[in-house]
């Protein structure tokens, strides 16, 4: 794996997606497309070092895009951190 610089970007994009998913779900449906874009950015950042993480993010994005699914992004972030920073 490269340095942990990528993990910070992945987590940043996922936190941004979390906020946008909640906004879209609660009151602002136009935020949905921005959430999807942030998922994609996180996928792209993860692809070079950890295709497994990229596929997990993609699976959540696809489920979210398909319908009324609200992804558990916090669990996804925890998984990213476990893979990139196993020592805590």
Question: What does the model show?
Answer:
With 88 residues, the chain is mostly helical. It contains four helices and no strands. It has helices at residues 5-26, 31-47, 51-66, 73-84. Helix 1 packs antiparallel against helix 4 (73-84). The two termini are 16 Å apart.
- Parts with pLDDT < 50 across at least 5 consecutive residues: none
Distance from N terminus to C terminus (CA atoms, Å) equals 16 Å
Largest sheet: none
Question: Order of helices and strands, N to C?
Answer: HHHH
DSSP summary, beta strand count: 0
| Helix count, DSSP H or I runs of 4 or more residues | 4
Radius of gyration (Å): 13 Å
Strand content: under 5%
Percent helix = over 70%
What is the typical, i.e. mean, pLDDT?
Answer: 91
What would you call the shape?
elongated
Structural class computed from helices and strand pairing: mainly alpha
